[in-house]
Write a structure and sequence with these properties.
The chain is mainly α and about 160 residues long. It has helices spanning about 5-15, 15-45, 50-75, 85-105, 110-160.
């Protein structure tokens, strides 16, 4: 295993309980979305089984990529470029099921294509906003913890020491 691959695996292992729960939530959402869309997909010539499998297969790296991207961007002093490959993976995994729908259908009316595009835009914007909120919220929480620690240290220095 090369050094780059080792760093990626370390990032995934460091996600913790919240990161793993996030990935599980993404998988459940993807399964529900595919099952809800099943009748419409088959109506327009899209194989719903292939869509379900593709959606679930891409959901796992999407969830990992999103959690790691947030973790990297909220770590003070960590260059943004460290998060770029993870963010690209998030974008590709997000787009793949929708690209399959458009490529496999061929018989959808314009309104259905616009619906797929609207779905992509809404959920894509929501994902970006969620990542932004988590990054900024995490940075604020980290700063607050640092300030609390500094305050505790100042108080302990001011207290008289017992001999």
């Amino acid at each position: 295993m090369d050094e780059q691959e080792g760093r990626w695996l370390d990032e995934i292992r460091s996600l913790g309980v919240f990161g793993r729960a996030w990935i599980a939530g993404i998988l459940l959402f993807s399964a529900a979305r595919a099952l809800i869309a099943w009748p419409a997909l088959s109506k327009y010539g899209v194989d719903p089984v292939v869509f379900l499998v593709l959606d679930l297969v891409t959901a796992f790296p999407y969830g990992i990529g999103q959690a790691v991207t947030v973790k990297l961007l909220r770590t003070e002093g960590r260059p943004v470029r460290d998060a770029v490959p993870w963010g690209v993976m998030v974008g590709v995994m997000f787009m793949a099921p929708y690209v399959y729908i458009v490529a496999a259908s061929g018989s959808m009316p314009l309104l259905a294509y616009l619906g797929v595009l609207a779905w992509m835009l809404v959920f894509g914007v929501l994902a970006v906003l969620r990542i932004r909120r988590q990054v900024l919220g995490g940075r604020r929480a980290d700063r607050d913890q640092d300030q609390d620690r500094q305050g505790d240290e100042q108080v302990s220095r001011q207290l008289p020491r017992s001999s």
